[in-house]
Amino acid sequence: MPRLHEKMESNERTPLIATVHVAPPRQRYQHSTVRRFCTIALCSTLLMATVFFLVPLAFLPGHRHHRQPLPSPHHSTTSIPYKELQAILLNEPKAEKAQEWSKYYTAGPHLAGKNYSQVLWTQERWEDFGIKAGIVAYDVYINYPLGHRLALYEKKKAKDSEASEWKVKFEASLEEDVLEEDPTTGLENRIPTFHGYSASGNVTAPYVYVNYGTYQDYEDLVNANVSLKGKIALAKYGGIFRGLKIKRAQDLGMIGAVLFTDPGDDGGVTEENGVGLYPDGPARNPSSVQRGSTQFLSVAPGDPTTPGYPSKPGVPRQPVDGSIPSIPSIPISYVDALPLLKALNGIGPAPKDLNKWWERNLGLKYKGVEYNVGPSPDDLVLNLVNEQEYVTTPLWNVIGVINGTLLDEVIVIGNHRDAWIAGGAGDPNSGSAALNEVIRSFGVALSKGWKPLRTIVFASWDGEEYGLIGSTEWVEEYLPWLSAANVAYVNVDVATVGPSFKAAASPLLNQALYDIVSKIPSPNQTISGQTVGDLWDHKISTMGSGSDFTAFQDFAGIPSIDMGFGPDPEAPGDTGGAVYQYHSNYDSFYWMNTYGDPGFHYHETMAKLWALFTAKLAETPVIPLNATDYALAIQGYISNVETKIDAAIAGTTTEESELEARGRPSPSAPIGSISKVKISFRKLHEAASSLLAAAINHDSWAAKLAEEAGEDIPWWKWFTKVKLYFHIRRANDKYKFLERQFLYKEGLDGRPWFKHVIFAPGLWTGYAGAVFPGLQESIDDRDFRNAKKWVGIIEGTIIKAAKSLK
Ligand SMILES: *[C@@H]1O[C@H](CO)[C@@H](O)[C@H](O)[C@H]1NC(C)=O
Ligand SMILES: *[C@@H]1O[C@H](CO)[C@@H](O)[C@H](O)[C@H]1NC(C)=O
Ligand SMILES: *[C@@H]1O[C@H](CO)[C@@H](O)[C@H](O)[C@H]1NC(C)=O
Ligand SMILES: *[C@@H]1O[C@H](CO)[C@@H](O)[C@H](O)[C@H]1NC(C)=O
Ligand SMILES: *[C@@H]1O[C@H](CO)[C@@H](O)[C@H](O)[C@H]1NC(C)=O
Ligand SMILES: *[C@@H]1O[C@H](CO)[C@@H](O)[C@H](O)[C@H]1NC(C)=O
């Protein structure tokens, strides 16, 4: 694709935001000449004049309520009132429009780095909506599928002869059924089933069923003397990130891995329970296959050849050993898995011979599968072929910008565009459709004279599916600017594939979210007037990984949130929504319109929620972060870790901690003393109390400033106004930099890319969030000396955070 390449290079010199220069906080310059001094003095005077007389006027709402919007919004310092903006953002997003965008994105393949016309189309739509947008490209190392095969061979005695020969007993289709109702499934150029970052290979060997392929599942097999070396693993999806299943197989000397989806993990929405199969009903189509990345995500996301720096053309590349698998793997459907599983019936341990973890969610028992582990005898072998083409190729983020009055306070919002399949109506294009509606609505506000107070950046990321590549490389490239200016990042990946609202966030953003969900009407009101907030359990999870917020939150220390609507597996029967056939051909427009979100009302709701949330962050004069909530959350996390240590001493565990422990190695003999760690916990609590005190103080000062800013200040009290402006700017700086205080330059043990001491993806789960990862992992390893080191690091960052608020 040389022509595309040229295009991208000409674009890449002028990324919109690269021209926004913001000095990092507290940077000191060494000026040696008088001339330089004079230039600076002159500039400063001009700047001061502007800041003193124009910015405060634009900034404070007292002024904003009284002026009529000027006809030329981009160059005026006036704006429409916040209430009017909110009304636009609540009324403008339309289900029909979201449906139109969804139809476009799901019309053809858009794997990372593969569909430049979708990039241009996205940029053009945003420009049509009135937002300046550019394309930022990176050259990244990724794979595309060439071929695959999975066959079960049996050695049979040939008739009338002593010799025996190999016969194919079963040839897996590795294809999803083409459905008449669902045109996406029959596209000529649909994407084959494969794994991102999987290794090419052609292996033939006996195979072993390894349950979910967690660390402890493999340990159970080792303890049961099941031979693994030289065999192929057959693992169920679920529980932990798929790449980690393959990593452990590889570490144990296995030579290939086959991953299948078990309907036992679909809750109550199954054929076994009498629910119709897609397309006739909401249960999983038996041929559906989960594609997905097998990168070792919890070590570092992004381009594996450029850890920590942007994948610009010509940069040095690192070897990928240790960050992606070296053994071949392929994903299959349960239809293709059935003959392999059945062939193991009666061979090797059965689930009841192992432990309770092997007896969960056995969704194919009703089809005659006993779930014996094998290994298959030497005359029953699998041939697994995986052919991947590895290339270094451009991918493209679309970045839109609305400059605010303030250029050094920036809100970034984003969604990824790339999908594993031609469709991707849920993942990610329900989010892309909602994002277009958010941007279109902001465009309408601009046309009515709105100018945001803070700068807003919109991102359509590429390459998320392979390993959060587009967003990670972008954050790595713009780190100095983001560190200095970025107030928050708002991510929506899957906007909707079900009726139940879900969110994960830095606690700084909790209050802002509670406020906004109470303003958004629910698309499914059983009582008139119900909001999204009324139908939500108000549970905000801790940030793990698995989407584009990771580089913002865990690498750059920018408070982030991730939200969307999904199925509710706890709901009775199929009231929690249809089975979401993740990363399969059935995540299509037809599925979305029939089962996922008929009428696209949840798309519209998500666009309103996202837009209003962004507007709150961008428009409220005092940044609406809440430090008290962060301090309270930290106290809670400390108590949890303490409980965990107590449990480790007493040797007791909870169901939840046991489940989590299935993912990681058994602890070795303790290193260092538990009681010493216990003692230093007191210091952690003291640090957290001082942070809480400082946070309460800061929040109440900020609340007082917010109140003053809300009052009408007559023009002749301009000095009060200017003074208030500077106080608010000071308070806002403290909010802006609070999350950064929790970064630790050296990073986590063994994965230095992850800099945040409070949040990281679990090392052995990949997706789920771990709090105090350095400390928790030390305790899990029973390395109490290292735990003590982490207590010290954490205490240091908490004290630093408390000081930063004073
Ligand atoms: C935003 O402002 C910066 C600095 O003044 C400028 O360089 C940039 O072109 C502006 N971007 C847009 C999209 O207006
Ligand atoms: C790119 O995406 C568009 C819109 O979804 C689709 O129509 C087209 O077939 C895709 N192009 C390629 C080369 O896959
Ligand atoms: C895989 O290896 C076997 C044995 O060497 C060979 O016969 C077969 O042709 C290979 N398959 C492919 C697709 O390369
Ligand atoms: C596994 O083998 C070891 C050593 O040969 C033996 O002591 C142990 O009992 C075996 N365990 C099982 C579950 O067969
Ligand atoms: C709306 O909510 C009711 C009650 O929670 C539920 O039974 C119904 O299935 C929901 N409908 C949709 C379309 O989500
Ligand atoms: C900040 O959070 C605390 C604790 O949840 C709450 O009491 C307080 O009202 C919040 N302040 C604001 C301004 O939202």
UniProtKB/TrEMBL annotation:
Region feature (Disordered): 270-293
PANTHER family hit by this protein: N-ACETYLATED-ALPHA-LINKED ACIDIC DIPEPTIDASE, VACUOLAR PROTEIN SORTING-ASSOCIATED PROTEIN 70
GO MF term (any one): carboxypeptidase activity
Residue intervals of the Transferrin receptor-like dimerisation domain: 679-806
Keyword annotations of the record: Carboxypeptidase, Hydrolase, Membrane, Protease, Transmembrane, Transmembrane helix
Keyword Ribosomal protein in record: no
UniProt family annotation: Belongs to the peptidase M28 family. M28B subfamily.
Keyword presence, Transmembrane helix: yes
Every PA domain range: 203-281
Transmembrane segments: 37-60
Gene3D superfamilies found in the cross-reference section: 3.50.30.30, Transferrin receptor-like, dimerisation domain, Zn peptidases
Organism: Hyphodiscus hymeniophilus
Highest taxon above the source species: Eukaryota
Protein name, as recorded: Glutamate carboxypeptidase
Domain Peptidase M28, first and last residues per copy: 397-589
